[in-house]
Amino acid sequence: GLAAERIIYVNGDYVPESQARISVLDHAVLYGDGVFETAVAWNSVVFDLDAHLDRLFRSLAAINLRPPHSKAEFADIVVQTVRRNRMRNAYIKLIVTRGANGEPFLNPEGCVPGVICFAREYLYMASPERVRDGLRVKTAAVRRPPAQVLDPHIKSLNYMNLVLAKLEATAAGADEALLLDINGHVCEAPGYNVFAVHGTVVRTPWQDILEGITRAWVMDMAGGHGLDVRAETIELYDLYTADEVFFCSTAGGILPVIAVDGRRVGEGVPGPVFSYLHKAYHDLLASGESGTKIDM
Ligand code: PMP
């Protein structure tokens, strides 16, 4: 028989993937002009959907795009999309585009915003071996843009900076890239926030980064566990000398980093702070108490 097609939400309709259409003149296609969120559902619960929608609205405000829906309506679109695909564990993307006005020019006047939501069976961004054994990362030559150029707080569709960093890392045989800011401080990775552990001190960069939902959870959880959590400026030296380094993101959970620029981190294996947080995160997701319930 025919495999059931996935259902995608596009501009008011839930349609089979092969019928999902947007204009080629949408400014998202022409200029990367739009914003998005990546969320996860585990055990039919969307993890911290409120935080994702708050961040989406901040991104929309920053790019001067009036939200085409209320937060409640966006939440319903996310829940419906997962429900209609009958997925218990899902990787979910919610996208708001500037839209099209019939002209291929930068002028956004008359553009009608577009909304897209799709879901996939949950997949890790990294392979299971990497999650288990840890990532080898490499500092990219390309830097994260400062707020004066394109504020990384905005979760914009323009990911070229991160794509270029990822290409560099891949070309060099590393698993992931690490980006520095314009002054050489550690920033983040393509799709992840970064943490460094020295003893009981857990540090994460604070400037020119996307403020990750997972990062916020890690900071809370590590603080609650008696660790000294600090959002502050971090240098490459701090990663090279750390007991542990880990990345975190919605689409990957918490991932150990075992090497940075060819230097072994700590013992070169996933460490105890990582292991504690990784288990706590998965226990929370599995418990079904992490957010918005999807009734099937
Ligand atoms: N930084 C960047 C640049 C990202 O794209 C992501 C993924 N959304 C993150 C950090 C992690 O954020 P979150 O925990 O909200 O997924």
UniProtKB/TrEMBL annotation:
Keywords: Aminotransferase, Pyridoxal phosphate, Transferase
Top-rank lineage group of the source organism: Bacteria
Family, similarity comment: Belongs to the class-IV pyridoxal-phosphate-dependent aminotransferase family.
Matches recorded under InterPro entries: Aminotrans_IV, Aminotransferase-like, BCAT-like_C, BCAT-like_N, Class-IV_PLP-Dep_Aminotrnsfr
Gene Ontology BP term (one): carboxylic acid biosynthetic process
Annotated GO MF terms: transaminase activity
Native source organism of the sequence: Nonomuraea zeae
Protein name: Branched-chain amino acid aminotransferase
CC cofactor: pyridoxal 5'-phosphate
